[in-house]
Design a protein that fits this description.
Layout lengths: L17 H4 L6 H4 L2 H22 L3 H4 L5 H23 L1 H6 L1 H15 L4 E4 L2 E8 L2 E3 L1 H22 L8 H19 L4 H18 L3 H20 L5 H11 L10 H12 L11 H4 L11 H34 L3 H26 L16 H19 L6
Antiparallel strand pairs: 1-2, 2-3
Helix pairs in contact: 3-5, 3-15, 5-17, 7-8, 7-9, 8-9, 8-10, 8-16, 8-17, 9-10, 10-11, 10-16, 13-15, 15-16, 16-17
Length: 399
């Protein structure tokens, strides 16, 4: 029997993980997707330089240590790589069995944000502050959980050979499980993360072979939900102002439109080759807010120029291209869906982050994958890379 979209249905015995099952000849190093790994590492290292440039003179942020953010970004990258290795070692099929536990843990963490443990950072009440300056943004890990729980449900009967496509009941259950954490995240409100999650759900449904009626219905529900949320006043004032500034950039250039205007000035001043690392006037003058996180691409545009910023886009493109190959070549629908969810996540979040610095997308407070400063986002994207590597490693290899 053939699975949807040309993927063959296969049955696998229980495994303890990717690394445990590989022989010496068929080593994990041979099975790694090196273009993805090297591109992600390059992006993280470029991000370290950009974050350093944006923060080395910000004494109010770096506690008087110009290397403060550089060290922490490199440390976050190291922890992220370790999480990737752990994910490969466990294997995406082993994690498939742990999805109910991971889902429950994710719900607990995002509910904790709504308790006194939660903290507001940059307008979003989306963080848990543990102490000692350590903070966690659970919504970053919810993106992974939604991908895994939907993939587990949608692929269960197809990979077992019982169906060619997920039935309507299974799709409905998957959407309900995805909607619960999304609804909680919306209460924070963390609109940017919800936007990413909606795109993830769409990508997962398209990859699963579910009826197009579900996709069209979800798009319609999303539009209706956006209208309802606005009508009920569920958005904070700063979020409404961001959309207003996007619709009319000249509305308040010194107020709500300030971030976008300064970002465009910084990127535009870079020209072809840029002003040189650590030499950007907008960056050193601290004219662009949140330049180490949401607006880190402006540092690349100003100091590395069109070529440097273009190289970042090229590396992101390599990751998406290789991820598409992994999704297409895997022999199980579960792996295809997981890879597709990651592709949708990385593609939309990158487009939104870069787009808001160029003024073609509203400001939504989303980091640029691998490049922006932030532990939670760095850990999550490297776990996603581990999932992609595991999917590739556990498929049959050609000679």
């Amino acid at each position: 029997m053939s699975a949807p979209h040309g993927f063959s249905v296969s049955r696998y015995a229980p495994e303890r993980g990717t690394l445990a099952k590989l022989t010496a000849r068929d080593s994990v190093l041979r099975r790694l997707d090196w273009p993805i790994l090297l591109s992600a590492l390059a992006l993280s290292l470029i991000g370290a330089l950009l974050v350093w440039s944006a923060t080395r003179g910000r004494t109010e942020l770096n506690q008087g240590d110009p290397y403060y953010f550089l060290f922490r970004h490199v440390l976050n990258t190291g922890i992220g790589v370790a999480l990737m290795v752990g994910t490969i070692w466990l294997g995406h099929r082993t994690l498939r069995g742990a999805v109910p536990v991971l889902y429950g843990l994710s719900i607990v963490l995002i509910l904790a944000v709504l308790t006194p443990l939660g903290a507001t950072i940059n307008g979003a009440h989306a963080w848990i502050v543990v102490g000692g300056g350590f903070s966690l943004q659970p919504s970053e890990f919810v993106k992974i959980t939604i991908i895994l729980v939907m993939a587990m449900l949608l692929a269960s009967k197809v990979d077992a050979g019982d169906q060619l496509h997920p039935d309507h009941g299974t799709v409905a259950k998957a959407l309900v499980l995805a909607a619960l954490p999304m609804g909680i995240v919306m209460l924070m409100p963390d609109l940017g993360s919800v936007m990413v999650m909606i795109v993830i759900v769409l990508g997962v449904l398209l990859a699963s072979g579910a009826s197009n009626r579900w996709v069209l219905g979800l798009i319609g529900a999303g539009i209706g939900g956006a209208v309802l949320v606005t009508a009920l006043g569920m958005l904070d004032e700063y979020q409404i102002n961001r959309f207003a500034a996007f619709a009319n950039p000249d509305l308040d250039p010194a107020g709500v439109g300030y971030n976008t205007n300064q970002a465009r000035i910084a990127i535009g001043s870079g020209g072809l080759l840029g002003s040189g690392l650590f030499k950007g006037s907008q960056t050193t003058g601290q004219f662009v807010p949140e330049q180490q996180t949401d607006f880190v691409f402006t540092v690349a545009g100003e100091e590395l120029g069109f070529l440097g910023a273009g190289f970042i886009l090229f590396l992101l493109g390599v990751i998406l291209w290789r991820a598409c190959r992994i999704a297409r070549e895997t022999t199980e629908l579960y792996g295809t869906i997981v890879a597709a969810g990651i592709i949708a996540w990385f593609a939309f979040q990158s487009f939104e982050n870069i787009g808001m610095t160029l003024g073609i997308m509203p400001v939504a407070g989303l980091p640029l994958p691998f490049v922006s400063y932030g532990g939670s986002s760095m850990f999550a994207v490297w776990v996603a890379i581990g999932l992609l590597q595991s999917i590739r490693a556990q498929r049959p290899m050609t000679a």
